């Protein structure tokens, strides 16, 4: 941005001292920034000898370019006659352009080389993990296993940190989702590898134990390979990744093409449109052919598919006529045909969404008691092979149902990250089901084996965890469909300048520039994290209609839209939008405080003072935010200060809300009063895809991939050895 300022400055015959000083300051700032940047690059070069020469050359070029810019902008002495021969930005602007190009080129080289080093570190770490895994596979004594697993644990911790940092650096949401899925597999498989290997060592002649262990090693290798594919942006044997098209994305693209006919009648052929519709209708066969789709949904989908073909035929007919003769009547007919076609596709999308989500809701509710898993554990301990065989058949049926559910949900997920989450869930059920069966068979063959029992528990926990994750995923898919989330939910009651406040018409709408966004980014991220925490707390309430929950959800949603504003995204486009949103947010907080006062009458006298104190705090911070949001300011600097203050005070309110929600839950549970009651919190992992998010801080994200779990494994190996 500094270089752009220099290049774009206007040449004027008269230059004030203020202008000359400003140009000189910019040149010096560029040179100082380059100096700091190059110092880091040189330090990296000294630590990585294989790239030292390339890095050093790039650093020298960058430093030279920075110094050249500083010399050319040294214009403070222009007023002195003796400096007439001094070359400056005013006498040689092309010199500044050349230096700027060299600087940007060399800085890019340094960044690319540094990125290559990071990629190499991840690959080296992966290779270490693979080598140790091979040793673990071949180990024959328990003592040797303990020693090697300790080393393996440390290597996995290092790999977790490196890949966690990389995941946070990825800009592509699809890659970020794939990375999170792979790291989730590695996290769960680490514990599975421990218990499966111990079981195999304890029962070396047991075929089912061997199959169980081999399955874990195979899955870990696949996950490690996928991480490297994402990091290096490559596929094995030069293959291109062909992601399956979902019905949701197919309909979206088809509608865009149809609506594009309004602007241009000739930009695509009728064959293209027909092919696109055929592909969509082929995918609807996943629903109509499924044994789990209800008869009513199947009939509606078939009917709408037939109607879509008819609407397209009518559209093509009018479209072809309009190409030959562009009359007013024909263009009106074309508009009607476009609207009817799009409406039909919307109805089809709504129908498949309803079919997929209702199936998912029914299955998740039906399997929430985990009866089959409990029965497998009991019959396994009893050594009842016949009963184990019976329940493994039931688990296989359950697995097929859940796999089909994931496939149908993928079609209606609405975003690429959620599609990837559905694919990951499908793989998890597909793989974990047989692993539970082999673990149960091992326990039935060795009913007195504590390690075999522990091993079955670990695999059952993974299954239960995935079912809990599916409940969260289903909520997110519904949110996207209903417009409560884009990549994540945004608040829909959005202000429009001039609509809510007559005074706004006189104010010029202002957006944050890139520099201001950078300054406020950290505060925005903190707000984002707090919205995730509040969402997590509200989702623990069984009664989602509870007044406290509804106010909390509304405030979280508004805070998220304010976070998006700090990134230059979302529906809040100007600072006036933000200030009005802050006012609405503060009003919602005041309403919540009133609800808390009403709730305090239901709690025991011992708890009431604490709740009232927190309610008063909430009222106070909301009042402060309202005053800040309504304050009148003028000028760019003052406006940005007000934006910063609004975001800061919103963060303070959300921090208080994070404390209030669990307190209210605790009091509800204690007093058994009100409509809201707790259900057990699902063991939702923060690294799961949530097109945010469950987005948390980079440190927490990195730790989510079992770093603490792994460290605990390593610490506890001494206990294993003593056993």
From TrEMBL:
<dbReference type="InterPro" id="IPR006077">
    <property type="entry name" value="Vinculin/catenin"/>
</dbReference>
<protein>
    <recommendedName>
        <fullName>Alpha-catulin</fullName>
    </recommendedName>
</protein>
<dbReference type="GO" id="GO:0051015">
    <property type="term" value="F:actin filament binding"/>
</dbReference>
<dbReference type="GO" id="GO:0007266">
    <property type="term" value="P:Rho protein signal transduction"/>
</dbReference>
<dbReference type="InterPro" id="IPR036723">
    <property type="entry name" value="Alpha-catenin/vinculin-like_sf"/>
</dbReference>
<comment type="similarity">
    <text>Belongs to the vinculin/alpha-catenin family.</text>
</comment>
<dbReference type="GO" id="GO:0005737">
    <property type="term" value="C:cytoplasm"/>
</dbReference>
<dbReference type="InterPro" id="IPR030045">
    <property type="entry name" value="CTNNAL1"/>
</dbReference>
<dbReference type="GO" id="GO:0007155">
    <property type="term" value="P:cell adhesion"/>
</dbReference>
<dbReference type="Pfam" id="PF01044">
    <property type="entry name" value="Vinculin"/>
</dbReference>
<keyword id="KW-0963">Cytoplasm</keyword>
